[in-house]
Amino acid sequence: ETGVTQSPTHLIKTRGQQVTLRCSSQSGHNTVSWYQQALGQGPQFIFQYYREEENGRGNFPPRFSGLQFPNYSSELNVNALELDDSALYLCASSLRGGGGSTEAFFGQGTRLTVV
Amino acid sequence: AQSVAQPEDQVKVAEGNPLTVKCTYSVSGNPYLFWYVQYPNRGLQFLLKYITGDNLVKGSYGFEAEFNKSQTSFHLKKPSALVSDSALYFCAVRNNAGNMLTFGGGTRLMVKP
Largest CB tally within 10 Å, which of A46, A63, A86, B95? Predict the structure, then answer.
């Protein structure tokens, strides 16, 4: 098991609502990335946070937003939920510095169902 | 733009036999390649990576991968499969900025007793 923890593990929301997912990074890691994994597909990159700022974003609309805190933990917020947002949301932490970064270690994910 | 292809949705092997899970990639610049495994209702677990150096990379649980630059491939291999290896396997490439992994669609490995 990695030291990356996500909460909650499962969540059911209604279309149009807002949701916040949380992630604690592995000890010693300073970077957090978020991925969306739809059923039967590979994970898709949402964005990465480094030094509390967004450091790259995938092809996701602005209603997907995030935060990183001084302790390197992170939140993913999704506004105006749509049915297609139903997926497994994965958080990954890594250590960035010296011009490179370590491999990413993933949490167990949050299963979001939008009804 | 970078991309990863895993041409087989499913691979079936008998326990004790060698296994190969295929992956090809497309990226500008030097490739940084990874294999992850996912068990049911779980996150992704890191298996191995290629950054530079030897073309044969050894990883966790007896897995290894062979990097072939001319064929732009990074196939995952194991000499003797176990039933417990049955899972979903993802190949990924990291972009040059180092902030994004692009994953293939995954290959489901089924190891039969």
Answer: A46
